Amino acid sequence: MLDDQNAKSMSIIVTKGTLDWAYPPFILATTAAAMGLEVTMFFTFYGLHLLKKDLNLKVSTLGNPGMEMPMGGMHMAMPNIMAALPGASALTTNMMKNLIKKKGVASIQELRDLAIEADVNMIACQMTMDLFEIKREDMIDGPSVGGAASWVEVATKSDINLYI
Amino acid sequence: MADMILDAKGLNCPLPILRAKKALKELPSGGTLEVQATDPGAVKDFEAFCRTTGNELVEHHMDGNTYVFLIRHTG
Q: Is B49:B13 a contact under the CB 8 Å cutoff?
Protein backbone atom coordinates (compact mmCIF):
# COMPACT_ATOMS: atom_id res chain seq x y z
CA MET A 1 0.00 0.00 0.00
CA LEU A 2 1.15 3.46 -0.86
CA ASP A 3 0.85 4.78 2.68
CA ASP A 4 3.18 2.10 3.98
CA GLN A 5 5.81 2.75 1.34
CA ASN A 6 6.44 6.41 1.91
CA ALA A 7 10.19 6.25 2.36
CA LYS A 8 10.58 9.66 3.98
CA SER A 9 12.08 9.88 7.42
CA MET A 10 12.35 12.29 10.34
CA SER A 11 14.51 12.54 13.42
CA ILE A 12 13.90 14.65 16.50
CA ILE A 13 16.31 15.50 19.28
CA VAL A 14 14.18 15.83 22.42
CA THR A 15 15.85 18.05 25.01
CA LYS A 16 13.07 19.38 27.21
CA GLY A 17 11.35 17.65 30.12
CA THR A 18 8.41 19.83 31.03
CA LEU A 19 4.75 19.00 30.46
CA ASP A 20 4.26 21.75 27.89
CA TRP A 21 7.46 21.08 25.96
CA ALA A 22 6.82 17.35 25.87
CA TYR A 23 4.03 17.99 23.36
CA PRO A 24 5.79 19.21 20.19
CA PRO A 25 8.11 16.19 19.81
CA PHE A 26 5.42 13.59 20.55
CA ILE A 27 2.79 15.30 18.37
CA LEU A 28 5.18 15.54 15.43
CA ALA A 29 6.54 12.02 15.90
CA THR A 30 3.10 10.36 16.06
CA THR A 31 1.74 12.41 13.16
CA ALA A 32 4.74 11.77 10.93
CA ALA A 33 4.54 8.06 11.73
CA ALA A 34 0.84 8.11 10.81
CA MET A 35 1.80 9.77 7.52
CA GLY A 36 4.15 6.94 6.69
CA LEU A 37 7.47 8.41 7.77
CA GLU A 38 10.12 6.48 9.63
CA VAL A 39 10.63 8.42 12.85
CA THR A 40 13.50 8.43 15.33
CA MET A 41 13.45 10.32 18.63
CA PHE A 42 16.71 10.90 20.51
CA PHE A 43 16.03 11.75 24.18
CA THR A 44 18.79 13.73 25.81
CA PHE A 45 19.25 15.92 28.91
CA TYR A 46 15.85 16.89 30.39
CA GLY A 47 14.11 15.21 27.48
CA LEU A 48 15.20 11.88 28.92
CA HIS A 49 12.60 12.28 31.68
CA LEU A 50 9.92 11.73 29.03
CA LEU A 51 11.00 8.09 28.87
CA LYS A 52 10.52 7.43 32.57
CA LYS A 53 7.96 4.81 33.56
CA ASP A 54 6.59 7.25 36.08
CA LEU A 55 5.77 10.40 34.13
CA ASN A 56 5.48 13.26 36.58
CA LEU A 57 5.76 16.24 34.27
CA LYS A 58 5.26 19.81 35.39
CA VAL A 59 5.09 23.24 33.86
CA SER A 60 6.71 26.38 35.14
CA THR A 61 5.69 29.89 34.19
CA LEU A 62 8.89 31.28 35.70
CA GLY A 63 10.69 33.30 33.04
CA ASN A 64 8.00 32.53 30.49
CA PRO A 65 5.90 35.66 29.93
CA GLY A 66 4.45 34.06 26.80
CA MET A 67 2.53 31.56 28.85
CA GLU A 68 -0.98 32.82 29.42
CA MET A 69 -3.79 30.61 30.57
CA PRO A 70 -7.51 31.20 30.46
CA MET A 71 -8.78 32.12 33.89
CA GLY A 72 -12.19 33.50 34.75
CA GLY A 73 -12.93 34.52 31.18
CA MET A 74 -9.58 36.26 30.77
CA HIS A 75 -6.06 35.22 29.85
CA MET A 76 -3.59 35.59 32.66
CA ALA A 77 0.19 35.50 32.66
CA MET A 78 1.74 34.85 36.05
CA PRO A 79 4.29 37.48 37.17
CA ASN A 80 7.73 35.98 37.90
CA ILE A 81 7.56 37.03 41.52
CA MET A 82 4.48 34.84 41.96
CA ALA A 83 5.74 32.03 39.75
CA ALA A 84 8.74 31.70 42.07
CA LEU A 85 6.56 31.06 45.13
CA PRO A 86 6.27 27.52 46.52
CA GLY A 87 3.32 25.71 44.99
CA ALA A 88 3.11 27.97 41.94
CA SER A 89 4.42 25.28 39.62
CA ALA A 90 2.01 22.67 41.03
CA LEU A 91 -0.88 25.10 40.62
CA THR A 92 0.05 25.92 37.03
CA THR A 93 0.56 22.24 36.25
CA ASN A 94 -2.91 21.42 37.57
CA MET A 95 -4.46 24.21 35.52
CA MET A 96 -2.68 22.97 32.42
CA LYS A 97 -3.77 19.37 33.00
CA ASN A 98 -7.38 20.48 33.41
CA LEU A 99 -7.16 22.48 30.20
CA ILE A 100 -5.66 19.51 28.37
CA LYS A 101 -8.60 17.36 29.39
CA LYS A 102 -11.20 20.02 28.67
CA LYS A 103 -9.86 20.78 25.18
CA GLY A 104 -9.62 17.16 24.03
CA VAL A 105 -5.83 17.25 23.87
CA ALA A 106 -4.10 13.89 24.32
CA SER A 107 -2.06 13.24 27.46
CA ILE A 108 1.69 12.77 27.04
CA GLN A 109 1.29 9.21 28.25
CA GLU A 110 -1.24 8.57 25.48
CA LEU A 111 0.93 10.15 22.79
CA ARG A 112 3.96 8.20 23.99
CA ASP A 113 1.97 4.95 23.84
CA LEU A 114 0.80 5.84 20.33
CA ALA A 115 4.38 6.60 19.28
CA ILE A 116 5.52 3.19 20.54
CA GLU A 117 2.58 1.51 18.83
CA ALA A 118 3.53 3.26 15.57
CA ASP A 119 7.06 1.84 15.80
CA VAL A 120 8.75 5.16 16.43
CA ASN A 121 12.40 4.39 17.05
CA MET A 122 13.45 5.81 20.43
CA ILE A 123 17.00 6.27 21.65
CA ALA A 124 17.86 7.15 25.25
CA CYS A 125 21.05 9.15 25.67
CA GLN A 126 23.62 7.10 27.61
CA MET A 127 25.58 10.13 28.72
CA THR A 128 22.47 11.75 30.23
CA MET A 129 21.65 8.51 32.05
CA ASP A 130 25.11 8.60 33.62
CA LEU A 131 24.97 12.33 34.33
CA PHE A 132 21.56 12.37 36.03
CA GLU A 133 21.85 8.82 37.42
CA ILE A 134 18.79 7.54 35.60
CA LYS A 135 18.77 3.75 35.48
CA ARG A 136 17.59 1.72 32.50
CA GLU A 137 14.92 0.13 34.69
CA ASP A 138 13.51 3.59 35.55
CA MET A 139 12.55 3.92 31.91
CA ILE A 140 9.95 2.20 29.77
CA ASP A 141 10.88 -0.88 27.78
CA GLY A 142 11.53 -0.34 24.14
CA PRO A 143 13.96 2.55 23.68
CA SER A 144 17.52 1.56 22.83
CA VAL A 145 20.42 3.26 24.59
CA GLY A 146 22.95 5.14 22.52
CA GLY A 147 25.02 8.27 22.09
CA ALA A 148 25.49 11.17 19.72
CA ALA A 149 26.87 8.94 16.97
CA SER A 150 23.63 6.93 16.96
CA TRP A 151 21.66 10.08 16.21
CA VAL A 152 24.16 11.38 13.64
CA GLU A 153 23.92 8.13 11.72
CA VAL A 154 20.11 8.40 11.62
CA ALA A 155 20.22 12.12 10.82
CA THR A 156 22.46 11.74 7.81
CA LYS A 157 19.76 9.56 6.25
CA SER A 158 16.72 11.54 7.39
CA ASP A 159 14.71 13.98 5.27
CA ILE A 160 13.77 16.06 8.31
CA ASN A 161 15.92 16.65 11.40
CA LEU A 162 14.49 18.64 14.29
CA TYR A 163 15.87 19.84 17.59
CA ILE A 164 13.24 20.55 20.22
CA MET B 1 -22.50 5.50 3.07
CA ALA B 2 -18.94 4.92 4.17
CA ASP B 3 -17.67 1.46 5.08
CA MET B 4 -16.55 2.76 8.46
CA ILE B 5 -17.35 5.81 10.55
CA LEU B 6 -14.88 7.40 12.94
CA ASP B 7 -16.18 9.77 15.58
CA ALA B 8 -13.30 12.15 16.34
CA LYS B 9 -15.51 14.93 17.65
CA GLY B 10 -14.06 16.83 20.61
CA LEU B 11 -10.55 15.56 19.91
CA ASN B 12 -7.72 17.95 19.25
CA CYS B 13 -4.62 17.76 17.03
CA PRO B 14 -3.12 15.26 16.32
CA LEU B 15 -5.69 12.72 17.59
CA PRO B 16 -8.18 12.88 14.66
CA ILE B 17 -5.33 12.10 12.22
CA LEU B 18 -3.89 9.33 14.42
CA ARG B 19 -7.30 7.69 14.87
CA ALA B 20 -8.02 7.99 11.15
CA LYS B 21 -4.73 6.34 10.28
CA LYS B 22 -5.57 3.47 12.63
CA ALA B 23 -9.03 3.09 11.11
CA LEU B 24 -7.69 3.16 7.53
CA LYS B 25 -5.34 0.30 8.40
CA GLU B 26 -8.35 -1.87 9.15
CA LEU B 27 -10.00 -1.05 5.84
CA PRO B 28 -9.29 -3.00 2.67
CA SER B 29 -7.93 -1.10 -0.31
CA GLY B 30 -10.78 0.87 -1.89
CA GLY B 31 -12.74 0.98 1.38
CA THR B 32 -14.10 4.31 2.58
CA LEU B 33 -13.84 5.99 5.95
CA GLU B 34 -15.99 8.83 7.20
CA VAL B 35 -14.29 10.99 9.83
CA GLN B 36 -16.34 13.34 11.95
CA ALA B 37 -14.29 16.05 13.67
CA THR B 38 -14.80 19.35 15.42
CA ASP B 39 -11.19 20.55 15.29
CA PRO B 40 -11.11 23.42 12.75
CA GLY B 41 -7.48 22.55 12.00
CA ALA B 42 -8.62 19.16 10.74
CA VAL B 43 -9.55 20.53 7.30
CA LYS B 44 -6.04 21.52 6.34
CA ASP B 45 -4.59 18.51 8.17
CA PHE B 46 -6.71 15.88 6.44
CA GLU B 47 -5.88 17.43 3.06
CA ALA B 48 -2.16 17.22 3.88
CA PHE B 49 -2.50 13.75 5.36
CA CYS B 50 -4.20 12.42 2.25
CA ARG B 51 -1.76 14.09 -0.16
CA THR B 52 1.22 12.64 1.73
CA THR B 53 -0.11 9.13 2.29
CA GLY B 54 -1.74 8.73 -1.13
CA ASN B 55 -5.20 8.13 0.29
CA GLU B 56 -7.98 9.87 -1.54
CA LEU B 57 -9.92 12.67 0.12
CA VAL B 58 -13.16 12.11 -1.76
CA GLU B 59 -14.94 15.10 -0.25
CA HIS B 60 -15.46 17.08 2.91
CA HIS B 61 -18.28 19.25 4.13
CA MET B 62 -19.72 20.76 7.27
CA ASP B 63 -22.66 19.26 9.06
CA GLY B 64 -23.65 21.84 11.67
CA ASN B 65 -20.53 22.26 13.80
CA THR B 66 -18.96 19.05 12.59
CA TYR B 67 -16.45 18.64 9.79
CA VAL B 68 -17.13 15.48 7.83
CA PHE B 69 -14.41 13.89 5.69
CA LEU B 70 -14.77 10.99 3.31
CA ILE B 71 -11.49 9.20 2.71
CA ARG B 72 -10.92 6.29 0.39
CA HIS B 73 -8.14 3.91 1.33
CA THR B 74 -6.20 3.76 -1.91
CA GLY B 75 -3.00 2.12 -2.91
A: no
